[in-house]
Automatic annotation (TrEMBL):
PANTHER family: PHOSPHATIDYLINOSITOL-GLYCAN BIOSYNTHESIS CLASS F PROTEIN-RELATED (PTHR43157), RETINOL DEHYDROGENASE 11 (PTHR43157:SF70). One of its GO terms (molecular function) is all-trans-retinol dehydrogenase (NADP+) activity. InterPro entries: NAD(P)-bd_dom_sf, SDR_fam. Coiled coil: none annotated. Pathway: Cofactor metabolism; retinol metabolism. The gene is RDH11. This is NADP-retinol dehydrogenase. It comes from Papio anubis.
């Protein structure tokens, strides 16, 4: 068991890049993977914006990060991705306040919530996980271009394999399954990353999607079955700090620019040595599978 545990949670960001003078935005940074990502970026000297829907929770985390890293430039700003007004207000405030944006981590997410809609009438998973981040990225894109080289990391999931883009039922009005709705939104994250990379070619802004691994966090809050699974297998599940490593790898590692648009995850083939990889580069055959799958689905 310890050996499996080690294999399932290995893979660390080995970059030693430091970030003084760099500006970073992390969405959903008040807990889980986002919090640990923000902490590490603050540790490396960046000015880090915690974009949270609950500002009070965010302030507590900002204090904690300031204390542990000694970096006082950890700021909290309100961002509710389920409301385009809030997204526009966040972007407006940020653009007025900051001259640069070097790293945008689109990390926030919801999973398996009961059927509900965002303030603008989008199904909650696609609305928050994809459309909210899509609008946020669009609003911050000029700033990212002006600050190039800059990066956008979209936190997707292994769950994208079960995703489908049902154009005739995008808002889940005809049929809805909470688990599949999450999968669809995570597929959208990957397709968005691929197309964004294509459109941003030559701009100095690059983008990556990641699967962080299976991570102990509040993501399972809406499903008692998943909470039970996470509890049962807790020994094998990554800590949020381990879960942040793939996002950090994509945000920090030098020389990744040529891989813009690719999907990154640790190579989780049970009982095989685990390592970071960009499947296209290292295991060509593995790359073909998700690539074909993604294209077959649309
Ligand atoms: N944990 C896992 O095993 C896996 C996670 N992922 C992905 O990793 C990312 C981070 O998840 P994780 O840390 O595990 O989950 P958590 O539930 O711990 O964190 C999710 C974060 O997103 C925020 N959030 C949710 N809805 C909104 C919203 N409407 N507006 C703004 N922020 C919002 C939450 O804020 P609040 O605290 O206020 O609710 C929280 O800060 C997600 O995109 C998830 O899909 C992917 C694969 C596996
Ligand atoms: C089989 C198996 C596991 C399965 C994990 C799965 C299936 C996780 C899926 C996570 C997703 C999709 C999260 C959010 O995006 C564990 C618990 C690691 C324990 C070892 C055996």
């Amino acid at each position: 068991a310890p050996q499996i545990r080690k294999m399932l949670s290995s893979g660390v960001c080995t970059s030693t890049v430091q970030l003084p003078g760099k500006v970073v935005v992390v969405t959903g940074a008040n807990t889980g993977i986002g919090k640990e990502t923000a902490k590490e970026l603050a540790q490396r000297g960046a000015r880090v914006y915690l974009a949270c829907r609950d500002v009070e929770k965010g302030e507590l985390v900002a204090k904690e990060i300031q204390t542990t890293t000694g970096n006082q430039q950890v700021l909290v700003r309100k961002l509710d991705l389920s409301d385009t007004k809030s997204i526009r207000a966040f972007a407006k405030g940020f653009l007025a306040e900051e001259k640069h944006l070097h790293i945008l981590i689109n990390n926030a997410g919801v999973m398996m919530c009961p059927y509900s809609k965002t303030a603008d009438g989008f199904e909650m998973h696609i609305g928050v996980n994809h459309l909210g981040h899509f609008l946020l990225t669009h609003l911050l894109l000029e700033k990212l271009k002006e600050s190039a080289p800059s990066r956008i990391v979209n936190v997707s999931s292994l769950a994208h394999h079960l995703g489908r883009i049902h154009f005739h039922n995008l808002q889940g009005e005809k049929f809805y399954n909470a688990g599949l709705a999450y999968c669809h939104s995570k597929l959208a994250n990957i397709l968005f990353t691929q197309e964004l990379a294509r459109r941003l070619k030559g701009s100095g802004v690059t983008t990556y999607s990641v699967h962080p691994g299976t991570v102990q966090s509040e993501l399972v809050r809406h499903s008692s079955f998943m909470r039970w699974m996470w509890w049962l297998f807790s020994f094998f599940i990554k800590t949020p700090q381990q879960g942040a490593q793939t996002s950090l790898h994509c945000a920090l590692t030098e020389g990744l620019e040529i891989l813009s648009g690719n999907h990154f995850r640790y190579a989780c083939y049970l009982f095989l040595k685990m390592r970071f990889y960009c499947s296209k580069e290292i295991f060509g055959f593995v790359w073909v599978y998700p690539f074909l799958k993604v294209h077959r689905l649309i």
